[in-house]
Design a protein that fits this description.
By secondary structure, the chain is of the alpha+beta class. The protein contains six helices and 17 strands. Bound molecules: FE2/S2 (inorganic) cluster and fe (ii) ion (FE2).
Amino acid sequence: MTSARTPNRLGMADYRTPPIKRQWYVAGLREDFNEELDEIVIMNRSLVRYRTTAGEPVLMQNRCPHRSFPMSESIREGDNIRCRYHGATFDSDGNFVNVPSQDMCPRGGLRKYAVKEYGPFVWVWMADEAPDESKLHHLPFTEGDWDLIIGRMDVPGNIMFMAENLCDLTHIPYLHEHTLGYPPEFAREDLDIREIDDGLEYERTITGHYFHKTALYSPHTSDSIGAHDYHMSSIGYFKSTALNYSYISLTIDPEAAAADPNVQQDYSFIISHYLTPETDKTTHYYWLLARNYDLKRPDIDELLENNLTQAFVEDMETTKLLQDMMDKDQHECRETIFAGDRQSVMMRRIVQRLADREAADGATI
Ligand code: FES
Ligand SMILES: [Fe+2]
């Protein structure tokens, strides 16, 4: 890892900044923690994940402390794991419980990481110090009546490329011109940005009558909404490099909605994104769409999932091109800042501040 202090003159974190340690990251979906022993790499650490017979998710060091054989390739015995190389056995707290070639168990064992199940995910706290539960951010779709679609992708680039992409609304009409379908004026709508608790809130009201054409509505719903005037507002949240979401609400005038059996008054969706550093150059990415319209419609789940996947593949391809560029082109190139970069710049300054703080007080994983 490189130093937390980068040569960037604006104090903005970038792909060279070490990942923030004192925060919760998604370590998988709940169902990824099951009876199987499964490897996941987080922050350059090979980890093994499984679920005990009592239902507790476990995330531990995957590398046997004897000669580095992977636990994920070993044998589960009840809640214990027996290493397949020389047969040492560990319990679900990572302690040695048996070494066949000797009577006594050595000290040490497998490091266990603190995890927490919340929403559809299992979250991990990688930092050495005790986990801070107050840093587990609230997910608004865990309350209320929402239909959920979840997707997962492997990002071929550093976490900061994606963290910035998610704050950046100005790429949407261009990179996603043929998938999300927003016109150029989307990139110029006014934003009201607030910094709160090492995070950001950025709010906007869309004034043009185009938002119903997004790929986040089915053609039928889009037509129904488009027949009316509506008010559309969106609040984006950068909560940490691990979590970004936007709450979008489109409301139709109550009288018009009451008179038209084809519409409901409120069409809201929450699109949330979860990033976890895998290595310095790869990132685990989960996205989740929660919507309050077209409920219990598996056909529309499939349609929206396809639409979003196509758009997010564009972000993945971009991230790869950016990472490849940084790998190939080693000269220091000052970034030009555009007017629409305000929230990205603020986000990167917050991350740099956190990284500097962690470097100053020696945070470790
Ligand atoms: S490598 Fe695991 S017991 Fe030897
Ligand atoms: Fe994007």
